[in-house]
HMG box domain-containing protein (Laodelphax striatellus), 212 residues
Amino acid sequence: NRSRMPRVAKADAKPRGRMTAYAFFVQICREEHKKKHPEENVVFAEFSKKCAERWKTMSDKEKKRFHEMADKDKKRYDTEMQSYVPPKGEKVRGKKRKHTKDPNAPKRSLSAFFWFCNDERGKVKAANPLYGVGDIAKELGRRWAMADSTMKSKYDAMAEKDKARYEREMTEYKNKGKLPMMTPQNMTIMPKKDEEMDEDEDEEEEEEDGDE
């Protein structure tokens, strides 16, 4: 058996990838949760789900600091990548095409839980001013689980109404993008090209010469 040589850290190691605003949000949520509950074993899948639910209900103002962190990290990454020279044989990935969302597209419908969070988030923050974003998300999830059927049916109705609104607006939005069907009423007769008109004139002249 050949003895393997220990790996040596490369001086020209590729820069660490940039983090998104949401990634910073999840990271801080985990840090806050770990400080308050150091002995608790966190199930990442469940924790991640709660973070995603909380993120969707946050206002732009609440998300601002995470976007600022992401912008700062992007500048760091771009600066480091400028001086990075990939080793031979390594392909440099091209920039992915960014999917541009149409600002005129209808706003997606919210679930019953999100409508509940919109109403309860302010109450949770007022009752627990020291809570971090992770704690607020956890408390909202707990309150939703404890809510009775009467309360949940109220938000279910709001979600159904919003879903119908979204489907209606989406149908109208898609129809706007369709081209009108060609019918005799809306067909426009295109003028002939100069060459075609010249050919027609030549044919008429030949017919006149033949008649003579």
